[in-house]
User: What shape does this take?
Amino acid sequence: MNEELNKPRQAAKSDNPDGEPDAKERQKRNLDPVAQKRLVASILSIGLAVVVGFGGVFLVNRLTMATVPVVRAKEIIPQGTQITPNMIEVDQVSKYNLQSNVTGNTSLVVGAYATTEIMPQDNITGDKLSKSNPVYTLDTGEMLVSVPVKNLSDALAGQLKAGDIVRVSALVASGSTAGSNNAGGTANQTTTPAELQYVKVAAVAASNGQSAAVSQAQAKTAIGTTTSSNTSNLPASVTLYVNEQQLSRLTQMSQSELTFALVYRGGGTEAKTLLQEQTQLLEGVQK
Assistant: This one.
């Protein structure tokens, strides 16, 4: 009986006649405690990375799927326009990467004034709104004056906007000065006084007092079109920011046909630089 039990042991020994452990056994014995800890740490790190990866994907999906109401513009809202309900809409958008100062409450938007031009589908944020009309906020010594527009072509085919920097010129007869009558019927020439090289537009109004609006089709046929021969939404006057000197010069030019050439559109440093250059020109005229 004992001989039979000893047979497997002898067979095992016969597989390794020298009595040395096999490769797997040697590998286990060679793993010191430090290596074992590193192996465990590596396994835990891989497991943690997998958990974090799946968790991050889940979190991003939750954020992108969550939506909030946001007030958006349905149409172009010019600067200084008081916003009405028909100009806006409420849309559900993802709150992922959304501006912090957007609003979904229409009561905060309706009745407020646009501090800048708002384009269709733009989110209406707090910095685009004002309780008072920002167009008519005047600096010391600054005034507003409205100048009539006789032809659409005189006002950039009716495409002038609030905030534009324009050059105001007068069509005068050859050999005469701005403000004199062209009695001789001679050819007109354009003259631009130094006081009106860079003037900021406050508003462009139609004959009904509302903000003017000109379609692209109307703009293409604007040359030679008088503002009184079309619908009431066409520009009838341009309101400008001026000082005493500029107002005096415009008064002298009141009998002439005035034209407005766009010099710069948009705010920022460039607009401020042009207005500062105009201030220097005015100082030169005074001397």
In short: The domain at 67-128 is CATH 3.90.1210.10 (Type Iii Antifreeze Protein Isoform Hplc 12).
